[in-house]
Protein backbone atom coordinates (compact mmCIF):
# COMPACT_ATOMS: atom_id res chain seq x y z
CA UNK A 1 0.00 0.00 0.00
CA UNK A 2 1.44 3.38 -1.03
CA UNK A 3 1.74 6.48 1.16
CA UNK A 4 -1.37 8.36 0.04
CA UNK A 5 -3.47 5.22 0.07
CA UNK A 6 -2.36 4.55 3.65
CA UNK A 7 -3.14 8.14 4.64
CA UNK A 8 -6.63 7.98 3.13
CA UNK A 9 -7.28 4.63 4.80
CA UNK A 10 -6.15 6.00 8.18
CA UNK A 11 -8.21 9.18 7.69
CA UNK A 12 -11.38 7.18 7.03
CA UNK A 13 -10.64 4.85 9.94
CA UNK A 14 -10.20 7.94 12.13
CA UNK A 15 -13.68 9.12 11.09
CA UNK A 16 -15.16 5.74 11.99
CA UNK A 17 -13.37 5.76 15.35
CA UNK A 18 -14.05 9.46 16.05
CA UNK A 19 -10.30 10.05 16.34
CA UNK A 20 -10.68 13.82 16.16
CA UNK A 21 -7.04 14.47 17.03
CA UNK A 22 -5.76 12.53 14.01
CA UNK A 23 -8.36 14.18 11.75
CA UNK A 24 -7.48 17.69 12.94
CA UNK A 25 -3.76 17.02 12.50
CA UNK A 26 -4.36 15.83 8.93
CA UNK A 27 -5.61 19.17 7.58
CA UNK A 28 -4.09 22.58 6.90
CA UNK A 29 -5.00 25.65 8.95
CA UNK A 30 -6.99 27.01 5.98
CA UNK A 31 -8.93 23.77 5.34
CA UNK A 32 -12.18 24.11 3.41
CA UNK A 33 -14.68 21.28 3.90
CA UNK A 34 -17.68 21.56 1.64
CA UNK A 35 -20.42 19.10 2.52
CA UNK A 36 -22.29 19.59 -0.73
CA UNK A 37 -25.82 20.88 -0.26
CA UNK A 38 -25.42 21.03 3.53
CA UNK A 39 -22.70 23.37 4.78
CA UNK A 40 -19.29 24.88 4.19
CA UNK A 41 -16.69 24.62 6.94
CA UNK A 42 -13.75 27.02 6.61
CA UNK A 43 -10.59 26.98 8.70
CA UNK A 44 -9.12 24.52 11.14
CA UNK A 45 -11.00 26.00 14.13
CA UNK A 46 -14.41 25.41 12.49
CA UNK A 47 -13.24 22.00 11.26
CA UNK A 48 -12.36 21.01 14.83
CA UNK A 49 -15.75 22.28 16.11
CA UNK A 50 -17.48 20.12 13.53
CA UNK A 51 -15.40 17.12 14.63
CA UNK A 52 -16.37 17.69 18.27
CA UNK A 53 -20.04 17.33 17.30
CA UNK A 54 -19.16 14.02 15.65
CA UNK A 55 -18.44 12.47 19.05
CA UNK A 56 -22.18 12.54 19.74
CA UNK A 57 -23.77 10.33 17.11
CA UNK A 58 -20.77 9.99 14.84
CA UNK A 59 -20.14 7.22 12.36
CA UNK A 60 -19.94 3.65 13.58
CA UNK A 61 -18.45 2.00 10.51
CA UNK A 62 -17.06 3.02 7.17
CA UNK A 63 -16.79 0.67 4.22
CA UNK A 64 -14.51 1.97 1.48
CA UNK A 65 -15.46 0.63 -1.93
CA UNK A 66 -12.96 2.48 -4.10
CA UNK A 67 -10.04 4.89 -3.96
CA UNK A 68 -8.74 6.90 -6.89
CA UNK A 69 -5.38 8.54 -6.25
CA UNK A 70 -3.68 11.17 -8.40
CA UNK A 71 -0.91 13.72 -7.94
CA UNK A 72 -2.77 16.48 -6.11
CA UNK A 73 -6.13 14.95 -5.21
CA UNK A 74 -7.82 11.68 -4.41
CA UNK A 75 -11.36 10.32 -4.29
CA UNK A 76 -12.78 7.85 -1.78
CA UNK A 77 -16.20 6.29 -2.29
CA UNK A 78 -18.06 4.03 0.11
CA UNK A 79 -20.78 3.47 2.70
CA UNK A 80 -20.91 4.95 6.19
CA UNK A 81 -23.20 3.96 9.08
CA UNK A 82 -24.40 6.43 11.73
CA UNK A 83 -26.43 5.99 14.88
CA UNK A 84 -29.43 8.28 14.48
CA UNK A 85 -30.81 7.28 17.88
CA UNK A 86 -29.82 4.62 20.41
CA UNK A 87 -29.90 1.24 18.71
CA UNK A 88 -30.93 2.63 15.30
CA UNK A 89 -28.43 3.01 12.46
CA UNK A 90 -28.77 4.57 9.03
CA UNK A 91 -26.52 3.97 6.04
CA UNK A 92 -25.30 6.63 3.67
CA UNK A 93 -23.35 6.43 0.44
CA UNK A 94 -20.51 8.93 0.33
CA UNK A 95 -17.92 10.22 -2.05
CA UNK A 96 -15.10 12.39 -0.71
CA UNK A 97 -12.73 14.41 -2.86
CA UNK A 98 -9.47 15.22 -1.04
CA UNK A 99 -7.16 17.97 -2.27
CA UNK A 100 -3.64 17.77 -0.87
CA UNK A 101 -1.60 20.72 0.34
CA UNK A 102 1.19 21.80 -2.01
CA UNK A 103 3.43 22.43 1.00
CA UNK A 104 2.80 19.22 2.98
CA UNK A 105 1.41 16.29 1.00
CA UNK A 106 0.42 14.52 4.22
CA UNK A 107 -2.25 17.16 4.85
CA UNK A 108 -5.48 18.06 3.12
CA UNK A 109 -6.33 21.65 2.21
CA UNK A 110 -9.76 20.87 0.81
CA UNK A 111 -12.38 18.19 1.29
CA UNK A 112 -15.61 17.91 -0.69
CA UNK A 113 -18.16 15.44 0.62
CA UNK A 114 -21.17 14.15 -1.32
CA UNK A 115 -23.56 12.06 0.75
CA UNK A 116 -26.93 10.36 0.18
CA UNK A 117 -29.15 8.38 2.53
CA UNK A 118 -29.61 4.80 1.40
CA UNK A 119 -33.05 3.31 1.65
CA UNK A 120 -33.47 -0.44 1.97
CA UNK A 121 -33.74 -0.82 -1.79
CA UNK A 122 -30.40 0.94 -2.29
CA UNK A 123 -28.41 -1.36 0.01
UniProtKB/TrEMBL annotation:
Originating species: Christiangramia echinicola
Annotated ranges, domain SnoaL-like: 9-101
InterPro entries the record matches: NTF2-like_dom_sf (IPR032710), SnoaL-like (IPR037401)
The protein's name in its UniProt record: SnoaL-like domain-containing protein
Pfam families per UniProt: SnoaL_2 (PF12680)
